Amino acid sequence: MNESVDKILEECITKGSRKSFFLFAGAGSGKTHSLVVLLNKIRDKWGQKFKIENRHVAVITYTNAATDEIISRLNYSPLFHVSTIHSFVWNVIQSYQSDIKKYYLRFKEEEKAELEEKINKARKKEGKTYLNNVDKFGKVIKSIAKIETVHKFIYNPNGNNFEYNALSHAEVIKIGAKMIVENKLLQEIIAQQYPFLLIDESQDTKKELVQAFFELERNFGGENFTLGFIGDQKQRIYTDGEERITTIIPKEWETPVKPINYRCDKRIIKLSNKISESIEQNATQNPRENAEEGLVHLFLIRNDDEMNKFEKEASVVLSMKELTSDDKWSMEDNNIKILTLEHMMAARRLGFEEFFGIMRHVDKYSQTLLQGKVDDMDVFSKLSFPLIDSLKKGDNLYALNLLKSYSPLLRNLPADKAYETLSKCREILNGLQKMDLGKVTIKEFLKNIVEANLFNVPQLLIDALSVPLESLDEQNDEVLYAWVSAMNLPVIQILRFNNYINGNSMFGTHQGVKGLEFDRVLVIIDEKESNMFLFNYNKLFGVEPLSATDINNRKEGKETTIERTMRLFYVACTRARHSLAIAIYTDNPEIIKQTVTRNGWFDSDEISIM
Questions:
Q1: How many degrees, rounded to 5, is the angle at CA 562 between CA 511 and CA 86?
Q2: What's the mean pLDDT when you consider all of the chain?
Q3: DSSP code, position 545
Q4: For residue 302, what are the CA distances in angstroms to 219, 299, 312, 608?
Q5: Of the candidates 464, 458, 426, 460, which has an alpha carbon nearest to the alpha carbon of residue 444?
Q6: Angle 14-18-21 (CA atoms, 0-180°, nearest 5)?
Q7: Which of 97, 4, 1, 589 is nearest to 298 (CA)?
Q8: Residue 341: what are its φ and ψ, rounded to 5°?
Q9: pTM
Q10: Sheet harboring 337-340: ordered strands across?
Q11: pLDDT digits (tens, 9 = 90+) for 146-172
């Protein structure tokens, strides 16, 4: 079946039969493999011609990690321009600065007019909504004045974009989409520069961009330009994706389907098929020929305010060890993946709740905190922690190279000071090794680094060592206020946070592991502990009725909370290769049991009430 799909895709990129396509590729179906096979065929058929013409093949992925993986699989060929959607759009529009300003101002003027209308129509002139709109109106006025003064806009897809003339991630997409839709010349330039444009994870591509790409294909598609969408509507978990994409695909496009799930064992595929059968027409998957049976089990944990959740979850893991006869179902050595509804749930379980609770509200870090790209933390994450880790492992060569590259102590060291400095350095390193990171505070740890001149510490953190919290305004000094507030926390909280965001722990989130796979997965669902508003597992499992909004949306053919939650549940469950445990904290285990057995998701003997 894969061979026939790959053959269809090859026809789509072959001279004389070029055609745009949407590849339906469900969980574990080998989507990335087919994409790489197709790209290699494009290189074989078109690479020499495009090299002479200085043209490229554009591949848009969802994350930086996916970008890096595809680039490496293509052996870093310069033919391919592989990037995230934000990077691609900025690359396309950044030369048109006057147009960027024009569209930016247009959007702000529209926002201003909407707010002005709301303010004028408000019945209560002192209500909270009215005052919020007045405040927003004032900010829009200031924003318009600022935009008028900008000569050149900048943007960093991996940064915070807090500079005066920087565009936000959302602004780049909004401006770029409108520029493409309304400017046929820009469409022609894109089609000329990128005769093949392939979009991975297309179900989560913002709907305005999907519409822009469709317009580009309508005008220039054919033998000179091919657009390829690759995705799975069952895994669309963000509300700004195009929810109607399967219904608006042009009839002349090819729409091949990859129906085999090569990742999961049979029982997990049976569950995922049952979950997804009402989501999409191409929902059903088949297991690979040599697939094992696999095992799923549902644990319904009755809510109790006195309950120790960590002990309950450890008990679930122990039960899975017995059910599967698999000793690797254990809380040790990261042999299982535990999926929580949100990051704070993982923070509580891993022990960095206070640090994360402070930093996640800092605007400057909003785009980069969970990507591990906060420069202010580099002295910990990229220098101090790796140094301590290498010393504990006895990797003295790594430690020495790190110090020679980044430590002021060893940089440009005069020969006559070498012995004295190295002796001092040895004392410092011995002290670092002996530190109990669970007891040493962030302040104490940083003071040691600063006083020893071991690494250069950002001025922000140096200031945070001595500035009294009461002297700061939380709004105007937001970043400094956060760090001063965190100074008395144990430094191990930063280490644990760093390990978590870099995937070096057994925890992840339902959304964050999309595209990944693990042998053993525990999905934790706890509506009381989480603060999600787009998803509601209680409604999905019949514990709560649909809201009036849900009922109206269903009547109008729009998606409801249940559809969104069902897709998220599908994503979480299909991460497991061999065995899957789902632990639900609930006040109504009996109702959930009735719902899931009625739906055919679980048999009675696959459900335990705890």
A1: 35
A2: 90
A3: P
A4: 58, 10, 10, 11
A5: 464
A6: 115
A7: 589
A8: -75, -30
A9: 0.85
A10: 507-509, 337-340, 518-526, 576-586, 295-302, 607-609
A11: 999 999 999 988 766 678 888 988 899
